[in-house]
Amino acid sequence: MANKKIFTFKIGENWKVVVLAVLAATTFWFFNSLNKNYEARLSYPIAFDFPRDSVVIVKPLPDEVRIDVASGGWNLLRKTFWFNVDPLIIQLDNPTEIKFLTRNSLYDIIKDQLTDIDLNRVVTDTLFISVEPKIQKMVMAVVDSLTIPLATNYRLTSAITYEPDSVLIEGPSSLMNRFPSTWLLEFDRSDIAGDFERSLAVPLTDNRLMSSTPKSVTVKFRAEEFIRDSLLVEIQPVNFPNRYRGKVPFLADTTTYVFYTIKGDLASQVSDSAFSIAADFKMYNSEDSTITPVVLFRPSEVLELQLLPEKLKVGHANQ
Description:
The structure is a single chain. The protein has helices spanning about 15-35, 75-80, 105-115, 175; strands at about 35-50, 55, 65-70, 90, 100, 120, 125-130, 130-140, 155, 160-165, 165-170, 180-185, 195-200, 210-215, 215-240, 250, 255-265, 275-280, 285, 290, 295, 305-310, 310-315. The protein is mainly beta. Mean pLDDT is about 85; it is low at about 25-35.
């Protein structure tokens, strides 16, 4: 059997020489390539120049434009990787009137500022611009008393006051033109009872685009508990004749229940003697032999008065 010879290549101590040779060749190729001209497509940064105090940027402005350029390798490398590139400046004299910039209008703007590379064409078709005039509007801050989240059986017992009673709203014209002259404040808590004093934020349609001065309104009012109570009260007969159609009329119902609403802390101060209820025979209904009672006097503190029964029966006795 013939002997086979095995050839091996050992770098051994010469590996450093090999690495340095490869590195030197790569470096030479790299720098040689940078001296040639190339065409490339770049995403180039842009910036818009216009006074911003009196306008609102509704949507973020474009921050780059795609362009095809031609230049030496060194310039292209500098424009892409190694250094911070100054953005192309797009001047807007009337930013609120311009809604977009086309490829054709961008070409001259970009070409004038690219002095060290050649602009072949603008790839980006259109840059859309959404800038609106900034408008201020004084808005009255109000609370709808019917929407106040009061605790069960509690009612408002004072006027609602505001500090301040109006705020200055600022924002883009499209939002401000739809903004109402009065704005309802919303409560951030429920089951309100007793004295209420709290700063409520002014709700804005878009917190990013709009602002208010101040940002909140202090609302004050008082809520007290009311209860439903009742008393049994005697009826005073009035103008009853001695005889009516040959008989003696009389009240069959001599008492009535008085139901009412009153502040909880005043309930104990009201008694049946505080009410005066009469049955006037002049209001006698002969069809059903009843009289509707009339409240002659009641305490000023009571609300939502109701009498049961609502009609009093009248009897007729033989003399």
